[in-house]
Amino acid sequence: MDLDSGEVVFERSEDYPKGVISGRLPGTDIALGENWFLQDSRDYVEVMVRLTRAATLELGAGNIAAIGTDFTNCTVVGLDKDGHPLGEHAEFRDRPHAWPKLWKHHAAQPYAERIERVLLEQEIPWFRDYGRNVSSEWFFPKLLQVYEEAPEVFDACDLYMEAADFITYFLTGRVV
């Protein structure tokens, strides 16, 4: 948008090449369970590069003051000690738990229910103020699923991030 007038001067979106991953891991015979929904973090970078190129070609790099991004929460990305998504490593490409779990990944439902039970049993006061519900779409049930079902993947990760935070980290090189 033009910083003086507020007029939108460039806006574009692009679908991820692999899109929503369900059924099988791409390029493998590895079946994903029911309610599994993943993404390929390489798609994030590929699309960001394409969109940035399109913007610079149309507007000129010197006319771009900021880039806005958006994700649907909570898509979870596991990173290695160098800040690279674990699912991009060759040794983890065949490990579904190493790939980013999309917000609508509902295979973590049993873990959401487990967290919810603990909060209810311990009568955590703030929990009732937040609806007395834990969703499989949230960060912690997905993390608990990885911990329980693929501890070697969990242990290989240095940091788990929400995808919106990851793309900001990718663009800036800073975890904030």
Rounded to the nearest angstrom, the radius of gyration is: 19 Å
What is the fold-level CATH name, i.e. the topology of the domain at 73-172?
A: Nucleotidyltransferase, domain 5
Task: Give the helix/strand class.
Answer: mainly alpha
Number of helices: 6
- Average pLDDT, all residues: 94
Summarize the structure.
By secondary structure, this protein is mainly alpha-helical. The chain is 36% helix and 5% strand. The mean pLDDT is 94.
Write structural notes for this entry:
The protein has 176 residues and is mainly alpha-helical. The protein has a domain at 73-172: Nucleotidyltransferase, domain 5, CATH 3.30.420.40. Helix content is 36%, strand content 5%. The protein has 6 helices and 2 strands; from the N terminus they run αβααααβα. The chain has helices at 41-59, 109-121, 125-129, 139-149, 151-156, 163-172, and strands at residues 76-79, 159-162. Strands 1-2 form a two-stranded antiparallel sheet. The longest helix is centred in the N-terminal third of the chain and has 19 residues, at 41-59. It is globular and about 55 Å long. The mean pLDDT is 94.
SSE topology sketch:
Layout: H1 41-59, E1 76-79, H2 109-121, H3 125-129, H4 139-149, H5 151-156, E2 159-162, H6 163-172
Antiparallel strand pairs: 1-2
Which characteristics define this entry?
single chain, 176 residues, mainly alpha, Nucleotidyltransferase, domain 5, two-stranded antiparallel sheet, 36% helix, globular
